[in-house]
Amino acid sequence: MTYFKYVAMAYAVFFIVLAWDFIVPRLQIRQQLREARNRLARANRTTATPVDEELSR
Amino acid sequence: MFKGLVGWFHKLGSPPYFDTFAARWSTWCYVISLPLFGYGLWQALAVVPADYQQGDSFRILYIHVPAAWMSLFVFGLMAFYGAIALVWRIKLCEILAMACAPIGAAFTLITLLSGSIWGKPMWGTWWDWDPRLTTELILLFLYLGVMGLYGAIDDRRAAARAAGLLSIVGVALLPVIRYSVLWWNSLHQGQTIRVFGESSMDSSMVLPLWIMVLATKFWFAGSLLSRARADNLRRETGKAWLRERVEKSS
Fold first, then answer.
1. Interface pTM (ipTM) of the complex?
2. How far apart (Å, rounded) are the C-alpha atoms in residues B1 and B156?
3. pTM for the whole thing?
4. A36 near B CB under 8 A
């Protein structure tokens, strides 16, 4: 009566779901911080453009 | 002391302060939960003797029961945060309530799947429309409903309020799940483990279970803070404090 297959399956489900629960918020945080960095870089590029290089009408 | 606690709670409502707090404490919560999981699982899989009737299949209980308790606890907590968010319009509580939903759904999924896997050798079926199983499945749908509603409305604050209201209504299901084994004839076993009073399990089998319960609590705290931090960052996109923080880190 080892029922190894069933015990292994249940514990595999447990670890997979917890791994998903651990990874997803980390990816979301990384994505938000990357977006914030990109936004900052864009803002810096815009302000760094010299006035005489801007297009004029 | 109470004044200090209220002051700290107000400070926690500040998005930059919460970001720092969540980043620090989520890591600590995970760090505390891991040795607890390690010890609990080692006891559950290697030390505790097999059950005289169920054999080794009873070892599934060490993940099934903590996950089932968490599925109810997280829903209650989500409704509590949702109620605070609705009454006092505290943004942090909206964030925390919505962060609870995916974690609770994950624990409910573990409960249903591990229970189903245990049920196959013990009951001879993967699934039965038993009151406990059916109400737990409805709980999963409620979690998914809260997550879906939160994702469906563009205005984050309106979305959190609507989903919070759904979670408050859904709280009515919790006592039904809890007492379903008493109210109806159920295939699911009755109460075996008691917080207060004597459990019908041997004490050598109960201790690892409490350790697993504690481990899931710390895991939940870590996950809640991580998810709340992610949502907080999404809501604070473009704010000066986030710009400064990113500038400093890069």
1. 0.92
2. 34
3. 0.92
4. yes
